[in-house]
Design brief:
The complex is a heterodimer of chains A (368) and B (288). Helices cover 46% and strands 15% of the residues of chain A. With 368 residues, chain A is an alpha/beta fold. Chain A has two domains: 172 residues, Periplasmic binding protein-like II (D-Maltodextrin-Binding Protein, domain 2); 146 residues, D-Maltodextrin-Binding Protein, domain 2. The chains are: A alpha/beta (368), B mainly alpha (288).
Chain lengths: 368, 288
C-alpha cells in the first residue's frame, strides 16, 4: 500500500519535472518569436539603428539584429536546422554549397521582391549563382572587395599580395588565415584558383604552392587578424603597415590617417556580394520580404552604405552616397581596377575541407 | 516510520533534481550526441556512414597530435609554474600573515577574478604589445633602442595562463595549509629539524591534497583554455581547443570536431591518471 503510494508520488514528481523542463526549454528557445519581429542574421553595419527605426515607423515591425560572418551564419543555421532567424545575409558564393549540404535555406519567391530596385547585372549574377535545383535562394544586397590596406608613407611600393612577403616588411604585415587569403595569393602568384574550382587535383596543386608561400611568409606576419576592429587597431598603432583586408577598412582608416588607404592589388581585388537568403524554418517571411524591399530603396541603401562603408546593389543609390566615400572609391578603383575585380564563383563542396587543412598547416608551421 | 522515509526520499529527490537535470540535459545527452557524430563520416551531401576515420585522422595527420602534445606539455608546465609561484604565497597567507593582513592578501589574490577573463587578457595585451606600456617604459629608461614586441610568443601565453590560474591554486593550498597545526612546525624546529627537512617531511605531505586538487583544476582549466592562448599567442598560438573550435565553426566539420573533443577528454583524463599514479596520490584523498 505504502509502496504503491510512494511510487505514485515519484511518478508524479517525474511528470511534473518533465513539464517543468519542457516549459523551461520552450521559454528559453522559442520565447521571443512574436509575429511582428524580424530576426535578422547579418554583418556589422548592414542594419543601422536609423534604418531600423524608419522600418518600424513604416511597417510596425521590430528588427532584432544578430551580427555574424559567413562561417558563423552557416554554423548557426546548421545547428538549428535553419530556425531561429527570419532572414540571413551570407555572401552569394556561400549559399548554394551550404544549401546542398545542409538544407538550411528555403527558396525565395521572386514575385514578392521589387526587382526594379536592383542593379540588373548584380541581380542576375546573384540569382543564378545561388540557384539549386532550379530554385533561387539569394538576391544581392551589399558588395565590396578585399585587397590591400597600405600605409603609403611606409610601404607605398606594395602593389600586390605577394609584396607582403618582402623581407623589408618583417613583422609589419597582417592578413587573415581564411580562404580569401589563399585565393588572393594564388592570383598574385599567377594562378587562377577559380578556374580550378571543379578540378580538385589542380586545386590541390595550387593550394600546395600557396601553402609554401604563406609558410615562408610567416616571419613577416605580425598577427593573423580575425576581426575588422583588430586589424584597424594594428594599423592605427603603426604596428602594421600593410595588410590584406576589406576595402571599407582602408577607407575608414583613410578618414583618420591621410597616408593609409585601400589599394586594389595588381592581380585584381576579390569581389564579394553579400545577399539575402531565407532560413529554412524562419517564421516571418512576410517581414523578411518587406525588409528586403525597404532597404533596397535608394535613399535607405545610401544610409546603409554610409554605415557599412560599402556600396549596395540598389539602383540609383549612388546619387545619395557621401561624396568623400565616392572619392575614396574612385581613388582606389580606377576603371581598369574595377574591370579586374575577381568575383567569387559559388564554392563547390569539398574545397573548404582541403583549404582547412592547408590553413591548419600554415598556422602550425614555425615562422622563420 | 515508512511515511517519514518516503518523505525523506522525496526531499532528497527534489534537492537533487536540479543537479540530475543539469547532468542529464547539459552533460550526458550532448556527449552521447557528440559521440554519435564523431563516429560518422560524410560520404556525400547529407549522407553519412559509420566510420572511425575522424579518430584515425588525429593519429595519421602529425599536425593534430603535435598540437595536442604541445598543448599538454605547455599545460603541465603552466601547472608546475603556478604551483611554484603559488605555494610560497599560500604559505605566507596561511601561516605567516595574521589578522587583517591575511584577509587583505587573500582578497588581493581574488580581486583580478572579479573582471572577466577577456578583460584580463586584454590587460596583458596592452602591457606587452609593441606600442604598449612595458615597451614604452623600457625605451624611456633607455634600456631599449626601439619598440620591443613581447606579445605573440609562447612566453606571453605562459604568463597569461599562470596569471589566469593562480587563484585556483592558491585557494585549495591556503585551506589545507590553514588546517596544519602550527604546533607541529614549532615542535619540529625544537627537535632540531632544518627548514628544508620540515618543509619536506611535514608541510608538503600535509598540503598534498591541496596541491593535487589545485594541480588538477589548473591543468584542466589550462588545457581547455581558448581565449588566452589565442589572443596572447597570435600567429604561432596553436592550442588544441582552437583546433576543435575551427573544425566546428570555420570548417563545418562537426564530425572531426566531435572526435577531437572526445580525444581531448580521454587524453586529459589519462594524463591526470598518470600524474596521480606517479605521485602515488588517490583522487579520494583530495576531497578530504
Amino acid at each position: 500500500m505504502f509502496k504503491y503510494k510512494q511510487e505514485g508520488r515519484i511518478v508524479m514528481i517525474k511528470s511534473t519535472l518533465k513539464v517543468l523542463a519542457g516549459t523551461a526549454i520552450v521559454a528559453l528557445f522559442a520565447g521571443n518569436a512574436q509575429a511582428d519581429t524580424l530576426r535578422l542574421l547579418t554583418w556589422g553595419g548592414y542594419a543601422p539603428d536609423e534604418v531600423i527605426a524608419l522600418f518600424k515607423k513604416e511597417t510596425g515591425i521590430d528588427v532584432k539584429v544578430t551580427k555574424s560572418n559567413n562561417e558563423d551564419m552557416i554554423s548557426k543555421l546548421r545547428a538549428t536546422g535553419g530556425s531561429g532567424f527570419d532572414l540571413a545575409q551570407p555572401s552569394q558564393d556561400r549559399i548554394a554549397g551550404a544549401q546542398r549540404e545542409y538544407g538550411i535555406y528555403k527558396p525565395l519567391d521572386l514575385s514578392k521582391i521589387n526587382k526594379a530596385q536592383f542593379i540588373d547585372s548584380m541581380f542576375k549574377s546573384t540569382t543564378s549563382q545561388s540557384m539549386v535545383d532550379g530554385k533561387v535562394y539569394g538576391v544581392p544586397h551589399v558588395w565590396g572587395t578585399s585587397g590591400l590596406i597600405v600605409d603609403k608613407s611606409k610601404a607605398g611600393w606594395v602593389k600586390d599580395y605577394t609584396d607582403l612577403c618582402d623581407p623589408k616588411l618583417k613583422g609589419k604585415v597582417s592578413y587573415r588565415l581564411k580562404r580569401p587569403t589563399l585565393i588572393g595569393f594564388a592570383f598574385a602568384m599567377g594562378m587562377d584558383p577559380f578556374a580550378a574550382y571543379n578540378d580538385k587535383a589542380k586545386y590541390a596543386e595550387i593550394l600546395s604552392k600557396v601553402e609554401k608561400k604563406l609558410i615562408s611568409c610567416k616571419g613577416n606576419v605580425k598577427a593573423y587578424w580575425s576581426g575588422g576592429d583588430q586589424l584597424l587597431n594594428l594599423v592605427r598603432s603603426g604596428e602594421v603597415v600593410a595588410a590584406m583586408a576589406w576595402d571599407t577598412g582602408g577607407w575608414k582608416l583613410n578618414n583618420e590617417m591621410k597616408s593609409v588607404t585601400f589599394v586594389a592589388p595588381k592581380s585584381g581585388a576579390l569581389g564579394w556580394i553579400d545577399s539575402f537568403a531565407l532560413p529554412a524554418r524562419g517564421k516571418n517571411d512576410e517581414a523578411a520580404y518587406k525588409w528586403i524591399n525597404f532597404v533596397m530603396q535608394p535613399k535607405i541603401a545610401a544610409m546603409i552604405t554610409k554605415a557599412a562603408g560599402n556600396f549596395t546593389a540598389s539602383k540609383g543609390a549612388d546619387n545619395y552616397v557621401d561624396a568623400r566615400l565616392k572619392a575614396q572609391f574612385q581613388e582606389s578603383f580606377p576603371q581598369e581596377a574595377i574591370d579586374n575585380i575577381k568575383w567569387y564563383p559559388p564554392v563547390p563542396a569539398g574545397l573548404e575541407e582541403m583549404e582547412g587543412k592547408v590553413l591548419d598547416r600554415i598556422k602550425a608551421a614555425k615562422s622563420n | 516510520m515508512e511515511r517519514v522515509s518516503a518523505g525523506t526520499k522525496l526531499t532528497v529527490l527534489v534537492l537533487f533534481a536540479p543537479f540530475i537535470l543539469w547532468m542529464l540535459l547539459l552533460v550526458i545527452l550532448p556527449h552521447i550526441d557528440l559521440l554519435t557524430i564523431s563516429l560518422r563520416e560524410r560520404v556525400a551531401p547529407r549522407v553519412y556512414e559509420f566510420s572511425f576515420k575522424n579518430y584515425m585522422e588525429f593519429f595519421v595527420e602529425p599536425l593534430y597530435w603535435r598540437t595536442f602534445a604541445r598543448t599538454a606539455i605547455m599545460s603541465i608546465l603552466a601547472t608546475v609554474l603556478t604551483l611554484i609561484i603559488g605555494f610560497p604565497i599560500s604559505y605566507y597567507i596561511a601561516k605567516i600573515a595574521r589578522g587583517r593582513l591575511k584577509s587583505s592578501l587573500f582578497l588581493l589574490c581574488m580581486l583580478p577574478f572579479w573582471v572577466s577573463e577577456l578583460v584580463r587578457t586584454f590587460g596583458w595585451m596592452i602591457l606587452l604589445r609593441e606600442s604598449g606600456i612595458i615597451s614604452g617604459v623600457l625605451q624611456w629608461l633607455g634600456l631599449a633602442d626601439g619598440p620591443v614586441e613581447m606579445l605573440y610568443n609562447d612566453a606571453a601565453i605562459m604568463v597569461g595562463l599562470v596569471y589566469t590560474s593562480m587563484l585556483f591554486m592558491v585557494v585549495p593550498l591556503v585551506s589545507t595549509l590553514d588546517s596544519l597545526d602550527d604546533g607541529l612546525i614549532e615542535a619540529a624546529y625544537d627537535l632540531g629539524g632544518s627548514t628544508i627537512a620540515i618543509l619536506r617531511e611535514i608541510v608538503i605531505p600535509h598540503a598534498m591534497p591541496g596541491i593535487v586538487s589545485g594541480c588538477i583544476v589548473v591543468f584542466m582549466l589550462t588545457l581547455g583554455n581558448y581565449l588566452t592562448p589565442t589572443l596572447l599567442g597570435g600567429k604561432d598560438s596553436l592550442w588544441f581547443t582552437e583546433q576543435i573550435y575551427n573544425q566546428f565553426i570555420t570548417r563545418f566539420n562537426w564530425e572531426q570536431g566531435s572526435a577531437f573533443g572526445f580525444l581531448l577528454l580521454l587524453l586529459s583524463s589519462a594524463i591526470i591518471w598518470t600524474g596521480l599514479r606517479l605521485t602515488r596520490q588517490r583522487l579520494q584523498d583530495t576531497i578530504k
